[in-house]
Amino acid sequence: MSIELFRNDNHAVLMFTDLVEEDGQAVQSNQFLIVDHGVGAIIDPGGNLAYNELFVTISRFFPPQSLSYLIASHADPDIIAALDRWMTSTRAKLVISRIWERFAPHFTKAGKTEGRVIGVPDAGGCLQLGENELWLLPAHFMHSEGNFHFWDPVSRILFTGDLGVSLMSGAEAARPVTDLSGHIARMEGFHRRYMVSNKILRLWVRMARQLPIRMIVPQHGAPIEGKHAIHDFFEWIENLMCGVDLFDDRAYQLPTGVVDGQQNRVKPLLRAVG
Ligand SMILES: [Fe+2]
Ligand SMILES: [Fe+2]
């Protein structure tokens, strides 16, 4: 399903929510196509599960061979595991944090990324896209060490990668959330474990509040739309304890269970280790 998040004569933002088969094994994920004055980029193209469907689907809107950029918020498998195929089928350049610049080529055959990786420094920057700019905003440790969010000043959409994620089906993800009550329960567990620390969340909120955001669009689950929902999201996230805030000595003990590969679970250990 393709969802038009924004369109005017020269600028379009499309979201795809259900290209990965929902068999319960892989987390639902969103991919994005942004086109300005005939120049196109994909944000967080995804892995091998999304590649074929995404390539065919975007062909209806934009010739994939003409894509200028593959823009990656970070280097996780659901973001760029299909990099080899994108590098083969397009002439696009990969835009990714400088700290992943020399790790990303491990996703491809030798030489495929030569001269085609734009390593973004920690401070971010504005990337020319058509006649407008896409802002590459620092979002390090949310959750990845080298992480960027993307601000599109034309549509006033903030693409937040793994921040604002909610766990749901592709069909549900297609419907923006305008009231956060009830939705926080679908975000909480993920953010407590995948975000690194409350300090980082507070610093990010301080930066993000300066932008006139119409919609926050995560890479999993539904967009958060409108003044009230975005205000409530900021309030929630800046007060959330997560990651290292919640880990103490109890989390770092020698194992007391045995991994049962047959049943994919951990059982109590019956004998002492060593
Ligand atoms: Fe991730
Ligand atoms: Fe993700």
TrEMBL record:
<feature type="domain" description="Metallo-beta-lactamase">
    <location>
        <begin position="28"/>
        <end position="220"/>
    </location>
</feature>
<dbReference type="Pfam" id="PF19583">
    <property type="entry name" value="ODP"/>
</dbReference>
<dbReference type="InterPro" id="IPR045761">
    <property type="entry name" value="ODP_dom"/>
</dbReference>
<dbReference type="InterPro" id="IPR001279">
    <property type="entry name" value="Metallo-B-lactamas"/>
</dbReference>
<dbReference type="InterPro" id="IPR036866">
    <property type="entry name" value="RibonucZ/Hydroxyglut_hydro"/>
</dbReference>
<protein>
    <submittedName>
        <fullName>Beta-lactamase</fullName>
    </submittedName>
</protein>
